[in-house]
Design goal:
The N and C termini lie far apart (63 Å). Helix content is 83%, strand content 0%. The protein is mainly alpha-helical. It has 1 helix and no strands.
Length: 52
C-alpha cells in the first residue's frame, strides 16, 4: 500500500533507499568487524593458555 507522496515522491523514495543502503552497510560492517575482533581474541586466549 503506497501513500500518495505527490511531487516529492522521488525525493522521499530515494531518501528511503539511501537510508536502507546505509543501514545494510552498517550491519555488514559491524558483523565483519565482530568476526575480526573475535578471531583476535581467540588468538590472545590461545597464547595465554600456552604461556601460563
Amino acid at each position: 500500500m503506497m501513500p500518495d507522496l505527490g511531487k516529492y515522491a522521488d525525493a522521499v523514495l530515494w531518501s528511503y533507499a539511501a537510508s536502507l543502503v546505509l543501514l545494510v552497510a552498517l550491519v555488514v560492517f559491524s558483523v565483519l568487524r565482530g568476526r575480526k575482533v573475535r578471531a583476535e581474541m581467540e588468538k590472545v586466549e590461545n597464547r595465554m593458555t600456552r604461556n601460563g
